[in-house]
Amino acid sequence: MKIEYCKDSKTALRIMTEHLTQLMQEKGLEPFNLALSGGETAKQMFSLWVEEYRDKIDWNALRFFWVDERCVPASDSDSNYGQANRLLFKPLHIPEEHIHRIKGEKEPGAEAMRYSWEVKEYLPLFNLMPTFDCIILGIGNDAHTASIFPNTMELLSDSRSYTVSQHPASHQFRITMTGTLILNNSPLLIPVFGEDKKAVIEHLADRFSPSNDTPAAYILSHAVDATVYTTE
Ligand SMILES: O=C1O[C@H](COP(=O)(O)O)[C@@H](O)[C@H](O)[C@H]1O
């Protein structure tokens, strides 16, 4: 695991995006299967991509999938897909057939199974499980990642690809990629910023242990190729 300390969040997102374009160039062949996260960090990233990367990324080569989704309709301001659609896909005219969304409006258990199948159908397999060309992960101020929270640690080693989770405070249902799929040989790019995350960031380099037993610590300790982009 590497940590890149940058002077501000925009610089961190630019360096992360250069890493993404390098991965795209290395793969060469289309399509490039990218899993997106949601939340505030993703909003900043989408705005930057539209402002500065409109002509610098081969958008047509990308196929978009999600790390997690809140179980709400796409029109809800909480929807991770809705946010990406408004801030990225519409401004860049991304074709609908390149977007593989999790349907947050459907019954969560059935949708988690359906999406696991959709991902399996489109992606190459590694260790009999789908593998993405890149996963952009987020980390919350409680050290959750994807929608795997400190009280749903069992989802880190769940053998399914996607399953149902629940936010510990709001009790909102979520559909999340499991730790097993996150760790299935995909490069992980992880932008993490903000005053409210300072305490989490301080522990990012620490190994997963009984005294550091958070979802983020588990993923970062087990990943073969993970880079965190943060501020000084
Ligand atoms: O709820 C979520 O939170 C995490 C972190 O989001 P942020 O707002 O702290 O940037 C995000 O990665 C995840 O996709 C989202 O559903």
Automatic annotation (TrEMBL):
<dbReference type="GO" id="GO:0017057">
    <property type="term" value="F:6-phosphogluconolactonase activity"/>
</dbReference>
<dbReference type="InterPro" id="IPR005900">
    <property type="entry name" value="6-phosphogluconolactonase_DevB"/>
</dbReference>
<feature type="domain" description="Glucosamine/galactosamine-6-phosphate isomerase">
    <location>
        <begin position="14"/>
        <end position="222"/>
    </location>
</feature>
<keyword id="KW-0378">Hydrolase</keyword>
<comment type="pathway">
    <text>Carbohydrate degradation; pentose phosphate pathway; D-ribulose 5-phosphate from D-glucose 6-phosphate (oxidative stage): step 2/3.</text>
</comment>
<dbReference type="Pfam" id="PF01182">
    <property type="entry name" value="Glucosamine_iso"/>
</dbReference>
<dbReference type="InterPro" id="IPR006148">
    <property type="entry name" value="Glc/Gal-6P_isomerase"/>
</dbReference>
<dbReference type="GO" id="GO:0006098">
    <property type="term" value="P:pentose-phosphate shunt"/>
</dbReference>
<dbReference type="GO" id="GO:0005975">
    <property type="term" value="P:carbohydrate metabolic process"/>
</dbReference>
<dbReference type="InterPro" id="IPR037171">
    <property type="entry name" value="NagB/RpiA_transferase-like"/>
</dbReference>
<dbReference type="InterPro" id="IPR039104">
    <property type="entry name" value="6PGL"/>
</dbReference>
<comment type="function">
    <text>Hydrolysis of 6-phosphogluconolactone to 6-phosphogluconate.</text>
</comment>
<protein>
    <recommendedName>
        <fullName>6-phosphogluconolactonase</fullName>
        <ecNumber>3.1.1.31</ecNumber>
    </recommendedName>
</protein>
<comment type="similarity">
    <text>Belongs to the glucosamine/galactosamine-6-phosphate isomerase family. 6-phosphogluconolactonase subfamily.</text>
</comment>
